[in-house]
Amino acid sequence: MEGSENLIRPHAMNEEEFWKLLETAKTMGIDMEEQVEWLIRTLSGRSVREIVEFDVWLHSFHYASCQSSLWAAAYIILGGCSDDSFDYFRAWLIYAGKEVYNRALQDPESLIPVLEKLEDYEYPECEDLLYAASDAYQEKTGRNDDDYQELFEQITGGLLDYPEIELDWEQDDEEHLRNRFPKLWERYGEYPMG
Question: InterPro entries attached here (predicted)?
Answer without folding.
Answer: DUF4240
